[in-house]
Amino acid sequence: MARVALGGFLTFAGIGHLTFSRQEFQAQVPSWVPLDPDLVVLGSGIVEIALGLGLISGKRPKMFGHLATGLFIGVFPGNIAQFVERRDGFGLDTDRKRAARLLLQPVLVDWALSSTRQD
After folding, report:
1. Going by C-beta distance under 8 Å and a sequence separation of 6 or more, which residues neighbour residue 15?
2. Rounded to the nearest 10 degrees, how much is the dihedral formed by the CA atoms of 63, 80, 33, 43?
3. Alpha-helix runs per DSSP H in 19-93
């Protein structure tokens, strides 16, 4: 159940990257990323949808869990940049809220790993 919920979460987030939250995600791409922010948002959205659907499918759950973990670790520097650069977005409009968001990332990593332990 936790694996499917994570898959749904990632799929929804990925759809948001491509559609209704696209501009807000673009504003969160750190200035030091050497790519067009829209390209980063579109690419990460596609990856999130693929990972989400993979987790939902139940095929090779450990592999998809590890890939999702890699994604969560890979975007963490962007979360740190949001905190350090004081970028508002998604209701994270204070340092306290942005700091709390940083604490969510290890929870996501644990969710990805613990929900896919068995192949």
Report:
1. 45, 49
2. 40
3. 22-26, 37-57, 61-74, 76-84
Structural domains in the chain (count): 1
pLDDT digits (tens, 9 = 90+) for 76-113: 999 999 999 999 999 999 999 999 999 999 999 999 99
pTM of the predicted model over 0.85: yes
pLDDT of 119 higher than 90: no
- Interhelix angle 95-114/76-84, rounded to 10 degrees, is 170
- Domain housing 6: 1-115
b/e sequence 65-100, b meaning 16+ C-beta within 10 Å:
bebbbebbeebeebbebbbeeebebeebeeeeebee
